[in-house]
Design a protein that fits this description.
The chain is mostly helical. It is about 70% helix and about 0% strand. The chain has 13 helices and no strands.
């Protein structure tokens, strides 16, 4: 009798769904802090500051060669002279770079783009971010350029800013509030080119490299993608970068007109003035670009680790 009952029970259908343990719902990934890109850019710019200083002085002064300019800086101001204007660099990165990385992420959301989107869509998001960040970061950009180029000038023409805050105060006091917008046109134009080429091309190259199957999302793909992005950005931005440096470093009425500066530069240096300082610009932007994105990716991993997402 008991054997018959056991056989009948075994024959009954079992509801598999009731016995399966439901998997916990996947945790939605939170967005990264908006200031993360600015911190990464500040770290990178601090490391590469001597190269940036040399690039600005080549573009804004009569120095002809990179090594000549570096030697002149060390001879006149010592090794620490290679870090002239570092507070201007910090001010610029903590305004311009924070804004551009935040605006890039927001622009991608606005137009429905992500890292795997077509290049034109990423470039559009980068352009939108560059336009906003170039305007917001213009005062910091002026102070950075002036502080970096100051010691290359004759003593009687130096501005002698103690730091970036002192520079802002003296600039507004001596030249008026309108001075904060000096060179804003070329700066915004350059920022649009920079972010359309640097941020967008990094996302594009990273996605394309991951598609090949030879790369994983690690430091190797970050390094390769950022190397390519740095070369693209240097070439695209060189003309606007040279104009921006010359206009912002000029005093008085000399640099008020972009057209006037272009005419003067072509008359004095020829049409190739637009690519003057390309090699030091590449040598500065290349490691900076690589450091920015490698540092940013590591900071993102750190945030993921603190949130328990790894």
């Amino acid at each position: 009798m008991s054997k018959t009952v056991e056989q009948a029970a075994a024959a009954l259908p079992v509801n598999v769904e009731e016995t399966t343990i439901a998997a916990p719902p996947k945790k939605k990934k939170q967005p990264y802090p908006f200031w993360l890109g600015g911190v990464a850019a500040t770290i990178a710019a601090s490391i590469t500051h001597p190269l940036d200083l040399t690039k600005v002085r080549l573009q804004a002064t009569g120095d002809k060669r990179m090594l000549q300019s570096i030697s002149k800086t060390i001879r006149t101001a010592g090794v620490l002279g290679l870090f002239d204007g570092i507070t201007g660099t910090w001010l610029r990165q903590m305004t311009y770079s924070i804004c551009r990385f935040w605006a890039y992420d927001e622009s991608k959301k606005l137009i429905g783009a992500d890292e795997k989107s077509p290049a034109w869509k990423l470039a559009l998001a980068g352009s939108m971010a560059g336009g906003i960040a170039g305007f917001v970061g213009n005062p910091g950009e002026i102070i950075m350029v002036r502080m970096q180029g100051d010691f290359a000038k004759p003593p009687e023409k130096r501005l002698n800013y103690k730091n970036s805050i002192d520079g802002l105060y003296k600039m507004v006091r001596d030249e008026g509030w309108s001075s904060l917008g000096r060179g804003v046109g070329p700066n915004v134009f350059r920022a649009v080119l920079m972010n359309a080429s640097q941020l967008a091309s990094y996302d594009f190259f990273k996605a394309e490299l991951l598609k090949t199957g030879y790369f994983e999302d690690n430091i190797y793909v970050h390094t390769t993608a950022s190397f390519a992005a740095g070369t693209v950005a240097t070439t695209v931005c060189s003309p606007a970068d040279v104009l921006k440096s010359r206009i912002m470093s000029a005093a008085g009425t000399e640099g008020k007109s972009t057209i006037q500066m272009i005419r003067t530069s072509i008359r004095n240096d020829g049409a190739m003035f637009m690519f003057k300082g390309w090699v030091p610009a590449w040598m500065r932007l290349q490691p900076t670009t690589m450091l920015i994105f490698i540092t940013l990716e590591q900071l993102k991993r750190l945030v993921d680790w603190t949130r328990g997402d790894l």
